[in-house]
Each structure stands twice: as structure tokens, then as C-alpha cells.
Amino acid sequence: MTPLVDTLKQLRYLIAHLDDETLQSEYPAMAEFLNNNRLEENVCLDELKFLYQFLYVYGRKSEATFNRFRNEIERFHLWSWLIQEKSVFELKRDDIEAYVDFVVEPDKAWLADSVQWRFKNHQGTRQVNPNWRPFVFKENGVSQQTLASMFTALNVFYKFAILEEKAFANFVPVVKKNCPYLVVQSQIKLPDTLSDLQWEYVFGVTKDLCEQNPKLERNLFTLACLKGLYLRISELSERPQWSPVMSHFWQDQDGFWFLRIMGKGNKLRDVTLSDDFVEYLKRYRQSRGLTSLPRVDEPHPIIHKLRGQGGMNVRQLRRIVQESFDLAIDKLKQDGFSEESENLEAATSHWLRHTGATHDAQTRPLKHLSEDLGHSKIATTDQIYIQTNIKERAKSGVKRKL
Predict the structure, then answer these.
(1) In this model, does residue 348 exceed pLDDT 80?
(2) Do 300 and 290 touch, CB atoms closer than 8 A?
(3) Can you tell me the distance from the alpha carbon of 351 to that of 366, in angstroms, rounded to the nearest whole number?
(4) If DSSP codes are grouped into helix, strand and coil, which group holds residue 272?
(5) Strand partners, 121
(6) Residue 72 contacts by C-beta under 8 Å, 6 or more apart in sequence?
(7) Which of the two residues, 265 and 360, has the higher pLDDT score?
(8) What number is the average pLDDT over the span 323-330?
(9) How far is 68 from 153, CA to CA, in rounded Å?
């Protein structure tokens, strides 16, 4: 089983190798796979070039977007070539339906027990990991989120192909509409949040341990940013087009503090800082040996590395958050809150954004909350955190007589 796409950093080199016909020199296994396919000559090669073009266009803004689309579209191409023995642009509605069936119940030969790396450097070439497979085994089967991601990726891919005049039809929407595996979501969907007790332990335990371990000051400030400023973890991370630094904190003429960040779609926004957050900003900066408040020309990363230069990536930031979660989980168990402890084990860093926004939705104007969250529409904020229509419906229905 040969992967078709390497990392985002390697994508330009892959494109150049295909253009220069030098793939064999660095990716021998992939070159052999393309030469031994059962389709007409150059079909797979041409479609792989287009796949790289698609990933280059949609992956430039975000590595997370690249990875998500890479995983979905790569295995779709492999299935089309190896199982259907067709070009991806020859597939019809019934073929897409067959692919959905395959995603729900993949062949065992296409399954790995865990997430595996695709390629690794070896004697000047990129060697394939023999344990890599397009799918990872899930004990509970395919999730609704996985199916939704699959349909989104395929839909975007075929729309792009139509614009580039590589395809003339997109059967994905009609297949999705009639998919027997998709469950129509309920109107009422509350965001995943920490309970008051869980947040008290996550933040409080980390804060208490800072005296024994000053390195945890970084954890404490990361938690404050994600919950207190409703940040996505990617917005705190180092990215090719954006490096969050201390000079992105700024103060207006009236003395109000803001943080300028780059959100989804490379959109800049200024998030308001509370007085409480400013105190934790001062505390964190002092723990780093900096002045209490940032200067306009300060180049230091917002979340610093303990070793090395530059800011943190998403994976490193998640580890920081998980460390504080684990400390809270242990303390909750010790104090007899076993249920709260078990529920916290399922939490992710994104729950902190939801926790802060859900809590503040009770007191802040909807428009202000929406702008700090970076939502393009107020209706999105209302639907996720306030759910006005649902509450009004419940109020009107609670006094119904039988």
C-alpha cells in the first residue's frame, strides 16, 4: 500500500519531481506504483498532478486543512484506481455510493491499528512505512464526523475540478443527501464545555503547582488565553504566515487592552482583554523575566519554548493543555469526584474556547461576544452558545395543557 502525498513541506518538491520526471530518485515506491497501475498510460500520473494542485491551493492557508483534505482525497484516489479501476473523473453516482459503503466498512487490508507516518528519509530517498494504511481501525465504526469530513472533502474537490475543467459533474451532494449512514443532527446541540468544577480544578491545580514548578506558569497562561480570550489553539500557534508575538497585545488611547490574532481564513481580529486577564498576562511576563506589560515593538513569542527559539506549534500547545488536564484529573480522583474526573478525560483544548464563550454569553452583548470569537455572523454565535429560538420555543411550550 503506497501513500500518494507526503507532508505539506514536501508538497512543492513532489510537484517538481512530477514535472521534471524525477520521482524515481526520491520516491521510488511511489514511482513504481504509478508505473504498475492498471489504468491507461499516464492517467494516474495526470490525476496525481491535479491532486497536488488541489492540495497546494487549499492547503496553503492552514496545515490542518491540508492534512484533512490529504487524508480524505488520497484514499479516495487509491480506492478509485485500485478497487474500481477507474479515473476519479470517470466515477458516477453509483461509484460514489460504493465508496461511501467502503469507508463505512473498509477492507481489512486497508486498515492500520494506529496512525502511522507515511514516508521517512533513508539514504537520500523517502521510504514508505510498510505499516501505513489509508484507514485507521475504529472499534465503534465510522463516526458521523468522519462521514461529514469525507463528504466535505469530496464535494470541495469536485467543485474545484469543475472550475478547472477537469470534471463536468459533481455527484457528491446527491449521494450525501440520500446517504443511509448519515444521521440528521438534532436542533439542540450544546457545545462541549468544562463544568464549573472541572474548570476550577484545571486552572486552580495548575496555579497552585506553579510555586513548586515555575514552568507551569506557561500552562497557566495558555489556559487563560484559550478560555479567557476564546482562542482556537491554532490562533496561539506558530504558522508559516503568522507568528503570535507579544507586540500583538496593544492598548488604545482609553486604556483598553486588545490582542490582535489571525483566525480562520487568515482573518485578523482584535480580541478584548478583561482586567482579570491582564493580571495573568503581567504574571506570566514577569515569570519570563519581561516587563509587566508588552511594548509595541516586542518580538518575543506569546507562548515561549522552554528550549530553542520561536513559538509553539499546535501539537506542543495541545500537550501543554493536556498536562494541566491530567493534573486536574488526578486531583479530582483524589478528592472523590470520580464522575467529573472521567468526563474530563474526554475533553480537548477546544472545550476551553466553548467554556469561556458559554459562560460569558450570559452577561455579554451577543454582538461583542461574536466579534471576539471571530464569527462572521452573529447568528452563528447565537446558534452555538445562546440558542435563542430553542429557549423561546421551550418557554412557549412549557405551559401546554394535556
Answers:
(1) yes
(2) yes
(3) 20
(4) strand
(5) 126
(6) 149, 150, 153, 154
(7) 360
(8) 96
(9) 8
